[in-house]
Amino acid sequence: MTITVRAGTHYQQRLAAEPAQIRRVRRITAALLRYWGWGEAVDPALVCVTELLANVDRHVRPSECELRLAASPSLVRIVVSDGSRTLPVLREPDPYAEEGRGMLMIAAVAHTWGADLTSYGKAVWVELHPAGQEAAA
Question: Whole domain around residue 39: which residue ranges?
Answer without folding.
Answer: 2-128
